[in-house]
Design a protein that fits this description.
Layout: H1 3-15, E1 20-23, H2 31-42, E2 47-50, H3 67-70, E3 75-77, H4 80-87
Parallel strand pairs: 1-2, 2-3
Length: about 100
């Protein structure tokens, strides 16, 4: 698959989602994940961040990840169980994640 096909497949998959959950572990947020967050935000889709990494990679006071990423997500979760709690049962409204 060439790069454009990969991007288009990713974009089309994102458009079929009701909510986007992003894994933000690592020394820096993955480039593709950052693109997905930006795309979802531009489309008005809710994005939840998951960071289980103990390292901070923030560039702002009290930040967990890059300010542009952290400012784009509805909330930041620290475990998969917390993400599931935010998502709730099918048909229910999402609960609040940790405020940013």
């Amino acid at each position: 698959m060439i790069a454009k096909q990969i991007m288009e497949a990713d974009r089309d998959a994102l458009l079929s989602c009701d909510v986007v959950v992003t894994l933000l572990d690592g020394a820096q947020v993955d480039d593709g994940t950052a693109w997905e967050i930006g795309f979802a935000c531009a489309k008005g889709m809710p994005v939840i961040g998951l960071r289980t990494d103990f390292r901070l990679c923030a560039d702002s006071d009290g930040g967990i990840v890059n300010a542009m990423i952290q400012g784009s997500v509805l909330g930041m979760c620290r475990s998969a169980d917390e993400v599931l709690g935010v998502l709730g049962a099918p048909g229910q409204e999402m609960a609040s994640a940790q405020p940013l």
